[in-house]
Structures are given as C-alpha cells and as structure tokens.
Amino acid sequence: MMKVIILAAGRGTRLGYHTKEIPKGLVDVNGKSIIERQIELFKKNGITEIVIVRGYKREKFCWNDVTFIDNEDFANNNQLASLVLAQNMVSGNVLILFGDLLFEQTILDQILASNSDISIAVDLNWKERYDENRNNQFPALAEIENDKITRISENKSLVRKKSSGEFFGIMKLSSKGSKILTDVIEKTKHHKGKFHDSYSFAMGKIPDIIEEVIDLGFTVKPILVSGKWFEVDTILDLEKAKTIFQ
C-alpha cells in the first residue's frame, strides 16, 4: 500500500489576496483546490492513506478521510520542520509532495513505476519553464550522472553539468527508503547553523534533506518525467495554471 504525505503548512504570501483567508494548497484552480485535485488523483489510483501537514488557516482543511498533522510554528519554519512533524508517518511505501503542486495522471504513472528505494521526480526541460525576467525563484536543480542524483541545489551560482533537471516536489520512498530518510532526519534535525542551501534545519527545504542523504552515501535516483505539472507560487503562476488544468 502507498501512503501520501502532503506538506501544506505555508501561507503562500506571493499569491497575495488569494491566500488572505485560505492556505496556499486550497487556492481554487477552475473550481477545485490544488490539494483537492491531488487527493482525487490519488484516490483514482487506489491511494487512500493521505496525510496533510497543515499550518496557516488550518481550520480550512476539512476532509474527513485525511490524517492531519499541525505545524503550529509554520510562520517560523519551512518544509523540513513539517516533515519532522510527520516523521512517524514515513514508513512503508510513501510519496512526499508539496501542497502547491498540480500534475496530471501521466506524471503520477511515471512516478509510481519507479522501483528505487529513494527517487525524486525530475523534469529535464527546466530551462523552458524558468524565466529569469519574471523573478522566479531559481529551481532546485538535480544533477544526474550514471542514473543517480549527484547533487541537488537551488544555488544559482553553482556550475552545473548539462545533465540536470528540476526537482519539482515529489519524492517516492520504498520501505527501505523510508527507513533511510527517517534515520537521516533523526540524525540531523537538531543540526545547528546553516543546513545546505538554508540558513537552518528548521527553515530547510526538501532539497536540503535530499542533499544530506546523498552526502551520506545513499543512492537517490531520478524519475525523468514528461507531462503536465505546475507549481503555483505567484499570482502569475495561478493564472497560467488555470489555462493548463481545466
């Protein structure tokens, strides 16, 4: 059985008035919220064990068949703090994903087909999506060599090899992979000072813990996906997402 953990504690300040009264993951895209679309897709594929880490405006999440974990200090932390709160749920086969991510069935098919212990969804066409003039946040780029991720970082100044793709927010774990990740979290969650690309563990993002896993010598495999996906960070993103996902 596959379990899903959705990290959805953040407000999404760059969405402006859209998140004044609701959290980012509940923003409407053509009649359905982002997370509603995620849940529908998972259930359609027989994945019914769903965990959501919520924070900002948490009372707005109201599904009866979902397990909720509350990140009380969401305003002062980031994705890794939410993941620590859900640490006990990371067991068996697990998908960990962002709560602001839209994706279609073909993307999910490609991810579920991976039989690696630790794998992340990567899009090689990142240059077509990234527009420096729009002041987009630079993507988390995963460098790939011999079918392994050798480094992942949002640091724009790094010199990267040609074989790099964008990690857009979905990680797949086997039972063994879940054990590796929880062990790494346990060893690093009290880390003091800078943590990879972030200035602390609590403010860390998923790419930071992936980089830690790699640095400790574990294998992280890329899932090279093609198809429609979109991470909704800004008002402009939301408008574009509405043209892609009907």
From TrEMBL:
Matching Gene3D superfamilies: Spore Coat Polysaccharide Biosynthesis Protein SpsA, Chain A
Domain MobA-like NTP transferase: 4-122
Keywords: Nucleotidyltransferase, Transferase
One GO MF term: nucleotidyltransferase activity
Pfam family, one: NTP_transf_3
Record's keyword annotation contains Nucleotidyltransferase: yes
InterPro entries hit by this protein: GlmU-like (IPR050065), MobA-like_NTP_Trfase (IPR025877), Nucleotide-diphossugar_trans (IPR029044)
PANTHER family per the UniProt record, alphabetical: N-ACETYLMURAMATE ALPHA-1-PHOSPHATE URIDYLYLTRANSFERASE, NUCLEOTIDYL TRANSFERASE
Protein name per its UniProtKB record: MobA-like NTP transferase domain-containing protein
Native source species: marine metagenome
Organism classification: unclassified sequences, metagenomes, ecological metagenomes
